[in-house]
Design brief:
Length: about 425
Amino acid sequence: MTKIIKVVARQVFDSRGNPTVEAEVFLSNKIKASAIVPSGASTGAFEAYELRDGNINYFLGKSVLTAVKNINTIINKNLKNIDSGKQKKIDQILLDLDGTENKKKLGANALLAVSLAVSKAEAISKKKELYQHLGKKFLLPKPLMNIINGGAHADNNLRIQEFMIRPDSAKNFMDAVEKCFLVIQNLKKIFQSKNLSTNVGDEGGFAPLINSNEEALDLVVQAIEKSKLKPGVDISICLDVAANELINKDGEYSLNSADFISVDESITYYKNLVSKYPIKSIEDPFAEDDWNAWSSLTKEIGKNVQIVGDDLFATNVKRLKKGIKEKSANSILIKVNQIGTLTETLNVIKLAKKNNFSTIISHRSGDTEDTFIADLAVATQSTQIKTGSLARSERVAKYNRLLRIEEQLGKSSKIARI
Ligand code: PGA
Ligand code: ZN
């Protein structure tokens, strides 16, 4: 049996330059491993608590020294001599030490860094790749590559936060990357020809000064065609509306302009978009508490379109159960830091799969060089991964990890069919 000798934490930085938590776990067989926690911008109200110090005179209040201290003291003390192979037990100790519903006491960022680092250390200890440690059957996910950023992720006027492409006809992961690469390069040329900026936003997608969703969609379709790929067959379009950011106090949404429209009008708007463009997936079409609106939309278009709950479910079993009962969606976005431990994340994925919800493993807009989610996607046989554009090292790191896994799996490697 391998035991945990100590857990050490430190403050490091994410892709937006904001402080975040890294934990390093040391085992009795001299193995060590570390994990870094990502951080969102359009965070939902039901996410586990990200503990920041709030001292405006130090890193503008964003430092995470309390979470780091919590790991170095109370967590370190309580995990000493625990069998590192007992992930469930370790995660339960973390939950008990915290004792709050949303991990407010020690910070979900403290809990998650330790939980993930334990599993990485145990994998190395068993001489396994992380995905082999996390699962038994493997599947490469299709990437949902972000190509245009709007909303809270960019400084333009686009209301929809993310325009993504999914290479549906890709035969393997390298093929998936190549198809996305072509569309991205052609989109860049189109932007250049229109004197639109090709600077990239937080998740590596372009962030040009475009004003309407339709204009963005038209340009993406043009880029797909210019790549000699068939829209809706080879490449489909996926959206993350992040509608939490677009709702007013009367429950209306500003989906395409500064004007607000009702839920019924929003549903009509989505139906039109889906009939006009090769859109196969819509994430967070409504706000995180607008359950009825979600059910109505899923009833209307859920047969042909993936309706993805991100802020709605917050990677939380209780919220997913409600969503299953109310048929609010047919897919769930999985973000490890929305819930705060590996065991809870795996439980949500299990529940989703049992109920025929697709699972999309996701990064955060503030992410790091940590590639844990690539292995998680493969090990949970999730059909999709959302980890930004083919740009910015913190995004590409996940794609590169998936390519290495594909190479390791060799002939037995398979990519999800959607
Ligand atoms: P976030 O964005 O990490 O800023 O929350 C990602 C998403 O909304 O899916
Ligand atoms: Zn989202």
